[in-house]
Design goal:
Rossmann fold; two-stranded antiparallel sheet; binds fe (ii) ion; about 375 residues; alpha/beta; Dehydroquinate synthase-like, alpha domain; about 50% helix; six-stranded parallel sheet
Length: about 375
Amino acid sequence: MGLMVYLNRVQFARGAIATLAEELALAGIVRPLLVTDAGIVAAGLLDRIRAVLPAAMSIAVFDAVPPNPTEAAVRAATRAFLAHGADGVIGLGGGSPLDLAKAVALLATHGGDSLAPYAVIEGGLARITDRCAPVVAIPTTSGTGSEVSRGALIVLDDGRKLSIGSPYLIPRAAICDPDLTLGLPPLLTAGTGMDALAHCVETLCSPRVNPIAAAIARDGLARAWRALPLAVADGADADAREAMMLASMQGALAFQKGLGAVHALSHPLGGLAVPLHHGTLNAVLLPHVLRFNAPNIASVLPILATAMDEPEGAELLADAIAAMSRIIGLPATLAEMGVPESVLPAIAAAAMLDHHHLTNPRRATQADYLALLRTAHAGE
Ligand SMILES: [Fe+2]
């Protein structure tokens, strides 16, 4: 066993957004930069946040976070942070704004204008210190759990989508208000929800020993499996929305145990020029990865089956996950998502370098990854 980190401050309740001013004060933030995207602004969520903040508070807003956050966008937001004389960051939105908020908290306080030295696979962990600016995270989707995790995924200038991670990047506070997700459209609810589900499944399959994480992942999987179709079918179902927000947080609390091939493959796919939704990629990949991992997860399969209340066996569980994706309206193949077949060899090569490759329960070769990608592309 190794380092286990639980928990930052989490305000979890319908209406929890009312605690924002108090949480900013506790984090020592008086001049925040608020990081979000255009969709959040258009949905009126930025106005709802402003309404609960003191009128006199000086807030700068960076609302140009791309669907997959880029190093260039981090630089632009960092300039906004410095120009405002900000002392902390509010991340508002799905995984992309929250991850970008963390990256700004890092870059604005650590000098330089490149994120590559801070990437996990470049030995970045040792370079990230307690100088990071404080972050308060407000999720508006239920999937990444970035509000309680130490990581940020950024597409670097060279096209690699890399993870930057440090305990110092865990937000000081997470404000989990499921009411903020009530307006999320069905397809985004489905895609983000499958990310949460994939976090729980991959955590349980990871060979690392962390019984606490495994227990959280088991509970999160059961919760997400029950609630996801309900949240997709009726976006106004407050109980399902609350369950999904909790499952999303649980997935991220648990995945310090390690993710696997689903994420090793979806990260490079997420770095392609054509924007591909992370959770939807995971939904497509997960059944194929379960089948591939089958020989090495015999002890985990009964745990998955019990949590999902589905028949035991890798094949049956893979089928059940594919059926869930169908029911909630997600595509079945990478081809349907618009992934060109020509990129698959490069994706297989890049997956070998992703840090989640190392915690997949069955060690994959580049040829294994390519075969898996081809199957997921064609939907065989
Ligand atoms: Fe994920």
